[in-house]
Amino acid sequence: MIRFPLFRRIALLLAMAGAMMSVPAAASCSLEAGTTQRVAIGDTGRAMLIHVPQGVAPRAPLVFLLHGSTATGAAMLADSHLAQTSDAHGFILAAPDAGIPAGNGFVWNIPGVPTVTGDIPTEGDPDDVAYLTGAIDFLAAQGCVDEARVYVTGLSGGGRMTSWLGCVASDRFAAIAPVVGLRSGNPLASDPQRPDPATCSPDHPMPVFAFAGDRDNTNPPQGGGAGYWQYSMLTALGRWAELNGCTHPLAYLPEGDVSVDYFYDGCRGDATVIGRMVKGRGHEWVADNEAMWAFFARFAR
Q1: pTM score
Q2: Which residue, among 150, 166, 174, 170, has the nearest Cα to 59 in the 3D structure?
Q3: CB contact at 8 A, 187 and 227
């Protein structure tokens, strides 16, 4: 056995203690498990509803749930029933309000695209992309969420915002699931039946699972409708397949009288593109929450 003189042993112990003290402690999440709470996001001056499942693990997956135009995060949380899916699978669920007040709620800031009020967001309007990505940073710094497992879904205008995040923040979101709101860029000014490629050029492949109702007259899956809509869901799916470098042609899989899945695979990074058309349903939350989560759980950034 090697023996050290007493003073050397004391010095060694002090050095070891100092080294241990110099290692920063891991951040401990302050969100209370088993609650839905409104949380102030850093110094943004904005807060969002966050549902935290009972027994949540440290650095859990995070799903953003974006409300439709003129609605609120609270209403979207109630209508979607995604909190129950959060409880079953252990992901944190955030339901923020958009930044632009409209009607009895808010609308999302998608640059260059008119909101349902007819107004195009200005530079003075809140930057919702910065707000949502800042929320990721804020929650990750507290040790609450895993930055590699962040996903986003949303209804209607929230689905269009979900699509926009896939276009401009592909480094922050691992997968997207728009509900009655899939887009792949703004309608092309010279031909609105096609997306403008200059308005959606993600840096990374983006897995997509979109949901639509075949009786939706607000955001018609066949195209048309308002100025912000115009091109069809299949056109949007095809553009995402192109962006993801999918090598297999469009295929489809009927699910009896319930739905039809249109999909592309053979994509870079396994970034599959799926569009589920639900039969007999309109402009509403038509998503299968369990299928959505199963899709999200396949991917990490």
Answers
A1: 0.91
A2: 150
A3: yes
